[in-house]
Give the backbone structure.
Amino acid sequence: MIKLVVTDIDGTLLPEGTDHLNPELFDVIRALKENGIQFAVGSGRQYMSMRYLFQPVLDDVIFIAENGSNVMYQGKNLSSSFMDPKQAKAVVRYLRTLDGCTTVLSVPECMYVEQKNEQVIALLENGYHNEVRIVPDLLPLCEHTNKLCVYCNAGSGVYEKALTERFGKDLNTMVSGDKWVDFMNRSADKGNALREVQQMLGVTPEETMAFGDNCNDIGMLQRAGESYAVANAHPEVKKTVKYIAPANTEDGVLQTVKERLLGGIK
């Protein structure tokens, strides 16, 4: 019996960087709760961005934010994972050398950027609804960051190999979107965060249903007995799951949860 449903957001529930969930999802989350099933979201997004999306059901959702480096429930922090300051500074310095790339530094409360890239700032503020602050230098903030990410104008695939080879040994380095690459503590992962949530709830992987689309979802999907990739998912993600759900543009998560767990309610 499924007791926990967890899903990615960008590329899975929504087209990447958008902010309009199907309002029917809120009714489904409430119905799951009534049936003893907890709903969680695991995303590379900042907690404040996730709160914005799920405002009508805030107290009914567990938020696995920043790729698992910040876990929140009912306004309380359940766990956080921070990067080694020396490693974070090395990433920032290297990313500054890449053309067409914007570095974003996260702390649990907000995000910082040092380049005045209006396109990226508009995306972060208006697309993701993050709290963004512009600073002259990110290096001092590396003392207490849970995630660094880089927005690549040319696409994340252009830099994925070089960044993984350079930092993948010491940091959890992963593509999190068409233009995003993330860097975190090695222990920070949606899968590790999901394991903590499962232990907190007393739920097993076999009692967990998970949905994802990109490589940063793989750890989370592997912690679920009932794992789904949406039809638009990365090919590597599809190899790791039991099932394929309809695409995000077809409300694949919503359809599947209703059919599998709520008797196909209208």
In short: The chain has nine helices and 14 strands. The chain has a mean pLDDT of 94. The first strand starts at residue 4 and ends at 7.
